[in-house]
Write the structure tokens for this entry.
Amino acid sequence: MKRIKVGAVCLLSLSLLTGCTPSTTLIKSYTDTALSSKSLIINTASEDDYTFFAEKLAVFPKNTSAVSVSESTDETDETEETESDTFGSDETDTEETLSGQEESDSEETEAGTYDETDETAPVEEGIDAKTGLIAGKDTLSNIYGKNVYDRVYPASVTKIMTALLTMEKADFNDTVVFTEDMVVTDYGAKLCGFEVGDQLTVEQLFYGLLVYSGNDAANALAVHIAGSVEAFADMMNAEAKKLGCVDTHFVNPSGLHDNDHYTSAYDLYLIFDKCLEYEIFQEVIRQNSYSLSYRDAAGGTVDAVYNTTNQYFLDYYDYPESVRVLGGKTGTTDEAGCCLILYEVDKKNQGYISVILGASDSDELYSEMNILLNKIPK
């Protein structure tokens, strides 16, 4: 498997390389910049400047909407790009997507490149979900991607960013008193059941966030860390920018639907990759259940058990024997569909990250995730 090597970084404010000219327009999406199989460089001429280099990440060619790219070459053929429909009622420049891109003239597989007109060529099985990818965390291989830069709704997969900020900014031993501004009133929202006056630790809320996907746990962490949900959303967006996410905007810590709350499969890959640097994150996402005891407002003890939302760990679905799933995060809303991001390893213990967003139901989500997992080199 070809390893992506470190390339030159084109800095906006410093002319370190001859002939490296900054863009003169604000970059709102990966559509507006150059992607290759070696580097991802983003520059703007505004005060919201991005300079990001994918030194230790897989980079997917932006000219294909669905293709296996594990043997991609150093150069990417450019194809015409078209604008697609924005989502939500307001059509703004910040909600452009990359769907509608032309597919490349050939499909690349691990065995090589095949002409689509060749009837003897192997058929590459893809996914029907809106967007997805699988990439090697250790090999940096971009194995498969479909619409990886499209802006879509992430549902509760959002919580990986909430988890990241919690790991970076909170003390897991701190006690959090559940307050009125942490309450979630959205109809149908998944809740741990916390009530005003309950006393929990950050660690307990963290488990409730990732194992059970509690929206009240997300709000509690957000208010504890930033003072309000709105201030925490600002922190989320600042962190996303720091990681190089240009197709992401968050408005809440839980992923409850909002037309202005969106991301892309590639940006979630960036966030998840950062989360995996923390041992506590890897430990929590592999749990199939979590038991806790905490005090309520009256001083009594509340005992609770939360089961994971990851249906691989509940034995509702089996994953391929050639890999071992180490954990992940689910998400589901009517607008987002069924979503899942996973960390898995092959039999050589090499890690991979896989993402599917916008599946029609759980059966499609897990069957298509198995399609991605089966693409991992045996």
About this structure: The mean pLDDT is 80. The helical segments are 159-169, 202-210, 215-226, 229-243, 265-275, 279-285, 362-373. The longest strand covers residues 323-333. Residues 324 and 345 are 5 Å apart (CA to CA).
